[in-house]
Amino acid sequence: MRRAVCPGSFDPVTNGHLDIIARASRLFDEVVVAVGVNKSKSSGRLFSPEERMAMLEQVVAPFPNVTVAGFEGLLTTFCQEHDVQAIVKGLRAVTDFDYELQMAQMNASLTEVETVFVPCSPEWSFLASSLVKEVATFGGDVSGLVPADVLERLTARLAERAAEREG
Fold this sequence. Notes:
Elements: E1 3-8, H1 15-27, E2 30-36, H2 49-59, E3 66-71, H3 75-81, E4 86-91, H4 94-110, E5 114-119, H5 129-137, H6 148-166
Parallel strand pairs: 1-2, 1-4, 2-3, 4-5
């Protein structure tokens, strides 16, 4: 069985993430979407790891060979523990490639897992979770950038944060 992992923070999951996950699901027998649970970065996150995994489980439900799991620590350790042969990374631009190549080479030095680079579809080449959060925070329309269920949660969370700041 060819098993791959699509790692990320997914805070929140975007249509660009879904594009890469969908395409990976056609290339591999099984795909695990691995949500990084980095406690040192948790204060900057909009959603908890559990919320991010719940959103992902909802939006990947149409893909029968895709599951969602959280992980802490090294991705290569997760890969070894889950018999994963490949890491799938989406590339938006050359700057992504520079960073991701370095990560792929480091991961290859730690274990025999291969990294597969998938160029994002052109319509998502600008898309990043951080940009979605920033635009949505200032009232911009991100409805075409995230799945509908994610938009609903994103809107609600931003309203909660705004109320906290005012209260």
